[in-house]
Amino acid sequence: MVWARFEKNNGEDVKKEFKKQPFKKPQRGVSREEIKDAYISGQSIGDICLAFDMSPSNIHYHRKRDLEAGVDWIALRNENKRDLSDLERKKDLFLKKLIDAFEEILKSSGGEPLEPRLLQDFANAYYKIVSPKTFDAKFLIQKSAEETIATIAHLALEQNKQEVANFLSENADLLIETILKKRV
Q: In the chain, what are the domain boundaries?
């Protein structure tokens, strides 16, 4: 089926035609974790679609399912993008700007005594920003459970216990969901 739409190009209507892409079923063996890892690493939806031969709706479906389970792909992607290599320099720069702002307030006060609490408010603002982020217990429990299941499955395969490995791979989501319900 061919679709068409009209767009303005230098004041003229231009007809653009495009084919509607058929729904693609994902390749067999592609797990949600592989898709999530690719998304978190910064690959675009289009690149992931090409790599795993699937449609964007499949990726959004998996992302939505994980979000319902408490795993926010967008937050993980943003956290992954943070550049921690020069964090100390950024902290020093922020602290310098904070002190400069406080000195400016001192100058503008014209020598009048300031409330001692003002400096405390500035210091608290700094420490709130640079304090370690809170850990998402649910995410840590889920990650630990996934690693445990993967390790047990790997050991089962090494010892030719195919039934155990099959059971773990078929029921991994249910196991993790059960663990999360008991822990969180």
A: 2-80, 87-130, 137-183
User: Is 70 exceeded by the pLDDT of residue 24?
Assistant: no
Number of neighbouring beta carbons within 10 Å of residue 172: 17
Average confidence score pLDDT of the chain:
76
Fold for the domain defined by 2-80: Arc Repressor Mutant, subunit A (1.10.10)
What distance in Å separates the CA atoms of residue 98 and residue 104, rounded to the nearest whole number? 10
How far CA 58 is from CA of 48, 61, 102, in Å, comes to 10, 5, 51
Q: φ and ψ at 154, to 5 degrees?
A: -65, -45
DSSP code at position 53:
T
